[in-house]
Design goal:
- With 97 residues, the protein is of the alpha+beta class.
- 20% of the residues lie in helices and 30% in strands.
- The strands form three sheets. The chain has a three-stranded antiparallel sheet with strand order 2-5-6, with no helix packed on it. A two-stranded antiparallel sheet has the order 1-7.
């Protein structure tokens, strides 16, 4: 699938990955808008955003999540795929499975 379809899938609660990513288990998912509080106590809305999950490696044995910003290569790629569909399970709304 292309990036436009991948973005639609994550915004609907799915997880997507790219075939060109060498390390298995990486994926992108969407976090819905929510409310949070600034350090001064002011309430604000946290915008919906994409996060990138990288599985555990090394001695600590825990994965890492960071903001995902699709660069020109990712936006032009057509090797995106639905992680949950390939695993044979339904999408998990709101984050990683």
């Amino acid at each position: 699938m292309d990036y436009s379809e991948a973005l639609r899938r994550i915004r609907a609660g799915g997880r997507v990955s790219r075939r060109s990513w060498i390390q298995p288990g990486k994926y992108v998912y969407w976090v819905q808008p929510s409310e949070t509080t600034l350090p001064d106590g002011s309430p604000v809305e946290l915008a919906g955003h994409a996060l990138f999950y990288r599985p555990a490696k090394g001695a600590r044995g825990i994965g890492q999540v960071e903001p995902y910003y699709a660069g020109p290569d990712a936006q032009g790629a057509d090797d995106w795929y639905d992680v949950d569909a390939e695993a044979g399970r339904p999408a998990h709304p709101g984050g990683p499975a």
